[in-house]
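From the pipeline queue, job 12 of 40. The input is one protein chain; the requested action is below.

Action: predict structure.
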Amino acid sequence: MSKKTINQLSTRRKFLKLTGLGVAALGLQQIGCSGPGKPAQVVQGLENVPEKPDSSKIWVPVSDRKLRVGLVGYGASKFSAAFGFQNHPNVEIVAVSDLFPDRCAALAKATRCNKTYPSLEELVKDKNIEAVMISTDAPSHARHTIEALKYGKHVAVNVPAVFGSLEDADKVYEAVKKSGLKYMMFETSCFHEDLHAMRQIYNTGGFGKIIFSEGEYYHYMPKPLPSYKDWRLGPPPQWYPTHANAYYVGITGASFTEVSCLGMPSHIDYWQAANNPYKNPFGTEIALYRTSEGGMSRMVISKDTPGESGERGRLRGEKGSFYGKYEGLEKVLIDLKRPPLPPGIEAGGHGGSHGRLMDEFVTAILQDRKPLIDIAMALNLTVPGVVAHSSALKNGEWMKIPQYKF
């Protein structure tokens, strides 16, 4: 083997390690399941990522009070328990809910909570609850967010913020603004080790203006994962775009302004228009965006291509680039380590992002400040994909994207 080949392999290993795409993060373990006692399903990204001994600084509490939280949803991904709310020193789990009694009981057991409700609509009426974690089906995220805000609850919600609806995006945006409450979408890529490093470098001027960025979300799904009312049965890939889009929006806080997107008709039956309720013909959609900085981004969402799975990205700016590591004009970089974790909190799945997302939400409420992925960023991560799919249906026609600021 040549020295050049050895160097290429070494560089690739470093990149995979940094982006959380090593063997432990490929989602190949049998870790999710469709219900208590039922066979496990492959759910990409949920495996815990061990924390390096020197990778976390000392966590300092910002308050001694406990935030009273309700958890909703315990389906195939079991996300309500996966982020570790139940173990945070500043959190008390007041109640949990799932539409299916067996799942609700399993969620209560997993989070050591004795109080349950049969639905989100009942749980949010509990006046003892201050904040709600919404881990329900994606098509219900907008409706459930608005319902929780109506009853005065801070909202954490899994991705995406809305599912294929620009009208829902505007409704959620107005509801959050009117409420004065905290809202945070739990976009896991935002606390990947590499993306966090890129955000730190960007915020201190190490990239300058971003000329070009790329994000990729590969999740091979030859068969649909179990889902409430089969919502995962062949939806447009770009309706679930945030894991890729974060590799620009989650770094810069900026947005995409227009898009041209192409889709590839899928060879897998349920990703064909005649075989899914969305009439979606695409298993892979690739979007080219113009950014609010004037640069360009290429964002890939692919559900029907086998091979290496995961979320990753890279960028090039006027002063530097990041392809697994920083290369640019800055000679001394600030501390790029991710935020410390509270005692008892695991880094968790999706590249060690789970615990940090949860702590960011809790801390933002306790400090009465804007959380990292607020309503504007959440919609600027989600809505471009909705427009991108419309563009793909029109063979790549350039289309304008709504803008959100908060």
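Job complete. The mean pLDDT is 90.
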